[in-house]
DNA sequence: CGGCAGCTTGACTACGGTCAATGACCGTGG
DNA sequence: CCACGGTCATTGACCGTAGTCAAGCTGCCG
């Protein structure tokens, strides 16, 4: 951890997606930060059922948040991107209710759980941001519920691709018209409640229709508008969100 | 509004499901409360797309939180019970992203949105509770996602019935072995991503199997254990939750 | 070169959706 | 008091989307 990033230099803060901080907030943030943690691809960041030790902010890398039914089926709840806060739920509720698994090597900023309370006492505006994040997260989950409940396979996949694409673009991770896409089809199908086989078929169809290109761990959006229509997503812009 | 309930006498507070409050918290709460609002059965408590004016706590009655896709399909995101906080998302994010519709006549405690910030400044422990509520809510939504993604029709319905049953029992609303169930099969199907027809078939099957009785706006749980097994819900107890 | 993980394709099946009709139970008004 | 219309529950017949099983691919790493 010798080369831990100082919050002052945190590359995430300059991203337009995030709300700016005041000097004093930043100062508090630096004291709040306990260190960094690196999780290799495939490793678990948080494990379902364990005591939660920390909150994390993703500095780099991607992950999936998932939970296991007792039948062994896995449901991917959401995809995790740089800047995302991980472990708020477990941090507040004390015990992790879901697993977070790194898909690529992931670097995390760690904040000790005990100091969350301190944050509520001394930094009401940061505490407010924290609740804001939770509310935004809840809103996205609502969208996900609507997707699984109402959209058919093609719409679901289009929806997921559009969401991920927009998010990564907003994070400035687009390069030559494509964004990194480290997730496997298996992750997608577990997220959307489809079988891997059918996920693949639909993906092939979208590709043949010339709407997306998905190869070599990268996603290229060829017909953003058309795909958004299929996905039943309106073109409303991504909201700005606070960062911790 | 002449006969508005004083927080001191709020019947919800005595319910074992909720965490107790200190004197000063209660005092603040009383000042926070702006009044009451009564919404008739079928009326909208919050309307998707509108500016949110208030936060609400449900004093009595039940409702559904739902969102509309542009195809006109409705997804019920969650069921709302007495003691639930409604409008936190809209309150924080400024605009309602979903609709909340009263299923029975519903009495709400209203809190002005502007004073939320005041709460964060002056009542850190209540603010913490607020975030706690958001985290719990998020956790439930995660469960819902897992249900829509992984469970088949029978499991979904069993799951919904068990959840609702347990919740109402925890609220002390059980009488003669049954709890009120004002929701229509249509609400259930919109919540679970099934057609009304199929929802009905499964319901009939569960009834014929002697597991539940569902009639006259009341739900009777005949084989709680067995139904929980079908639903793939473990028998873990309901968590205590803060009330606002 | 072999082995493994992930992707792709085909053939068959079934769960759940759609369409349509009927029934039960209201509240309202003639 | 009963006819009417509305909403909600129920049932049957048929169909289609997506799941399952199974086999070949492809590309990567040791």
Please describe the structure with a list of short key phrases separated by commas or semicolons.
four-stranded antiparallel sheet, homodimer, Jelly Rolls, 2 domains, DNA-binding, 8 helices, Arc Repressor Mutant, subunit A, 244 residues, alpha+beta, globular
Structure characterization notes:
The structure is a homodimer of 244-residue chains. Chain A has 244 residues and is of the alpha+beta class. The first copy, chain A, folds into two domains: 7-141, Jelly Rolls (Sandwich); 146-231, Winged helix-like DNA-binding domain superfamily/Winged helix DNA-binding domain (Arc Repressor Mutant, subunit A, Orthogonal Bundle), CATH 1.10.10. Helices cover 40% and strands 21% of the residues of chain A. Chain A contains eight helices and eleven strands. In chain A, the strands form three sheets. A four-stranded antiparallel beta sheet of chain A has the order 1-8-3-6. In chain A, strands 2-7-4-5 form a four-stranded antiparallel beta sheet. In chain A, strands 9-11-10 form a three-stranded antiparallel beta sheet. Chain A binds a DNA duplex (30 and 30 nucleotides) through helix 7.
Q: Supply the number of structural domains of chain A.
A: 2
Biggest sheet features of chain A: 4 strands, antiparallel
> Beta-strand level of the residues of chain A, as a percent range?
15-25%
- What's the β-strand tally of chain A? 11
Report the top-level CATH class of the largest domain in chain A: Mainly Beta
The CATH architecture name of the largest domain in chain A reads: Sandwich
Q: CATH H-level name of the largest domain in chain A... which superfamily?
A: Jelly Rolls
Mean pLDDT of chain A, rounded to whole units? 91
Give the overall shape of chain A. globular
CATH topology of the largest domain in chain A: Jelly Rolls
Number of helices of chain A: 8
Q: Rounded to an integer, what's the Rg of chain A over CA atoms?
A: 18 Å
- Spans of at least 5 consecutive residues with low confidence of chain A: none
Assembly state (oligomeric): homodimer
Helical fraction of chain A equals 40-55%
* Strand order of the biggest β-sheet of chain A: 1-8-3-6
Helix/sheet category of chain A? alpha+beta
Span between termini of chain A: 20 Å
